[in-house]
Design goal:
single chain, about 160 residues, alpha+beta, five-stranded antiparallel beta sheet, about 40% strand, globular
Length: about 160
C-alpha cells in the first residue's frame, strides 16, 4: 500500500513496515546493504503532518516513524525517526494497530499531535509521564469504537 493510505487509515501507534521491494544484499556488500537498510525498515507511527503551503514552497502530507532508541544506562541518547512523504515510492504495510485498552501519550506540535509513548494501560501511561516530566502531554485511550471502525471499513492489519 502507499504512504497515502497509511496517512489516511493508520492510527498513531501503529507498527508500519516499509520497503522498496528489492532483496536484501549479502553481508559482504556493506555499502549496498546500508543503502538497502535506509529504504527498508519498521517503525511506529508517531506523527501525521498535513500538507503545508507557504509562499516560497509547498510540502505534501507526511508520516513520521520512530524506528528505535539508542540508550546507555537507561538514558535515551538518540532517537531514530524517519519522515516519509505521502508521495513516496516505497511500499508500506500496517503490521500492527494499537490494541483496545492501550493509551497514547500525545504532545501537541503545531496543528498536529505527536506520539510520545504507547502504554499498555492508563496507569502505565501516567507512571511514564511522571517519570519523564512531559508537561504539555495528554492521554488518549484506544477504544473499541476505533478498532471496530477499522474492522467494519476493512482496514484490519495484515
Amino acid at each position: 500500500m502507499s504512504a497515502h493510505i497509511v496517512y489516511d487509515n493508520a492510527p498513531l501507534g501503529s507498527l508500519i513496515r516499509y520497503s522498496d521491494g528489492t532483496p536484501k544484499p549479502p553481508a559482504r556488500f556493506t555499502r549496498k546493504r546500508a543503502d538497502w537498510q535506509r529504504r527498508n525498515g519498521l517503525g511506529r507511527l508517531v506523527r501525521k503532518a498535513p500538507p503545508r503551503d507557504r509562499p516560497t514552497y509547498s510540502a505534501p502530507a507526511s508520516i513520521t516513524l520512530n524506528e528505535g532508541n539508542f540508550s546507555s544506562s537507561g538514558v535515551i541518547l538518540v532517537t531514530v525517526m524517519r519522515t516519509h512523504s505521502v508521495d513516496s515510492e516505497l511500499k508500506f504495510e500496517i503490521v500492527e494497530r494499537p490494541a483496545i485498552g492501550m493509551v497514547r501519550v500525545l504532545q501537541r506540535i503545531g496543528d498536529d499531535d505527536e506520539l510520545l509513548h504507547l502504554a499498555e494501560s492508563r496507569e502505565a501511561a501516567e507512571l511514564w509521564l511522571a517519570k519523564t516530566g512531559h508537561r504539555n502531554a495528554c492521554l488518549e485511550d484506544v477504544t473499541a469504537d476505533e478498532v471496530g471502525a477499522d474492522v467494519v471499513e476493512g482496514r484490519a492489519a495484515a
